[in-house]
Amino acid sequence: MDVALKLESVASQMHLEPAEEKQVVVDDAPQIAPCGITVGKQAKRESLGIYNAAMPGGKTIPLLKTMLTTACERNCAYCPFRAGRNYRRTTFKPEEMAKTFHQMEQAGMVQGLFLSSGIIKGSIVTQDKLLETVEIIRKRYRFNGYIHLKVMPGAEKAQLERAMQLTDRLSVNLEGPTEQRLATLAPMKQLSAELIRPLQLIEEIRRTQPAYTGWKRRWPSTATQFVVGAVGDTDLELLQATDYLYHRLQLRRTYFSAFSPIRDTPLESVAATPPIREARLYQASFLLRDYAFDLEELPFSADGNLPHEVDPKMAWANVHLQDEPVELNHAERRQLLRVPGIGPWSADRIMEARRAGKLRDLRDLQQLGLKTKRMERFVLLDGHRPNHQLRFF
Ligand code: SF4
Fold it and tell me: Which member of 123, 198, 234, 264 has the greatest number of CB atoms within 10 A?
């Protein structure tokens, strides 16, 4: 099979693995790449696994999101690549994958790589092949751009150290928030011993070894993914795990992937998870990570789930700020971040502006570039509730 067909075969299922992508690139692909991949002007780069990816700092790059092999000896219940499923497998050798990526990069089709793999001959052998691929890309092809590498379950400390010297991001998919949920989702995976342990080792390496030994003299960020809603998991379970990962293991990002059933898998008759649940989990996870909310403050209902009809910050504010609005001229940054419509950027703008003079009405905020609609019910400006008539947005 030629490399274009192999990439297409892998890419057909890569949407199941949320990474840094923002949106699919569909209409500005080069026509021919040197590796023989022909991409007509209207062709979709998505079919090869190329996605627009948001980098730290806001830059967007085309990212090749692919796998070394779609063959796998494990049997995760949600996965199209699970062992025994009737599915045509695709495998790249490390040399072949590295060369394919290099040629696509030289052709201007991609500027970064997200590389994962099914597991064949055990996690350690598979991780070695992933590392070999990245090593060729970095050393032989001298690629200095973005690489996000997947860590296999149970990867060894030496492999993690090597990976940390070659990549910008490492991720270990936990898939389930507790041992019990994971046992149904992925019967051959162990949450603590195989999945959390590598993340703990990465954090231990970050704490005990000098960062200048890492790629570009800094350590890679870490991330994970959960499959949401397939096996009765609650938002509380997912966010409890997220809180631990953010605050104890310094993960940069937890991805939530709303479950979608796949034919010929044990979960094929389980209903798909509504996308709004995924959205609410992201909002709540950002409150834990960036807004100094504690897990106990999130508006869980008795069944351990978040409301879908209102976002978690607004739900909290409706209870706590309606009668006790925040005075924007005096509040600490932490209090400002509690107000719907005020994020880290707008909190900084407010603090900067009030050093120069009092904020007296919504117009003052709008002149700072803030959208004021969501905050109006929860703030005071110079001792007064804002006049809603002044809203421009
Ligand atoms: S280990 Fe990965 S590729 Fe293999 S079945 Fe599980 S999720 Fe799929």
Answer: 198
Q: What is the pLDDT of residues 285-312, one digit of tens each?
A: 999 999 999 999 999 999 999 999 999 9
Pocket test for ligand 1, best of 81, 127, 172, 195 (most atoms within 8 A of CB): 81
Average confidence (pLDDT) over 1-11: 82
CATH number at residue 367: 1.10.150
In whole angstroms, give the CA distance from residue 72 to residue 69: 8
Which of 29-38, 91-100, 296-305, 347-356 comes out lowest in average pLDDT?
29-38
Q: What is the pLDDT of residues 10-57, one digit of tens each?
A: 887 776 666 665 543 333 333 333 333 434 433 457 788 999 998 877
Do residues 83 and 214 share a domain?
A: yes
Query: Residue 333 domain-assigned?
Result: yes
What are the structure tokens assigned to 350, written together?
């407010």
Domain boundary among 234, 251, 276: 234
* Mutation pick for ligand 1 pocket among 12, 13, 66, 74 (CB with most ligand atoms within 8 Å): 74
Q: Which atom from ligand 1 is nearest to the alpha carbon of 72? A: 4
Distance from the first to the final alpha carbon of the chain: 55
User: In the structure, which protein residues have their CB atom closer than 6 angstroms to any atom of ligand 1?
Assistant: 72, 74, 76, 79, 81-82, 118-119, 186
Would 353 be classed as within a structural domain? yes
Mean pLDDT value across the chain: 90
Contact assessment for residue 151 and residue 171, using Cβ atoms and an 8 Å cutoff: yes
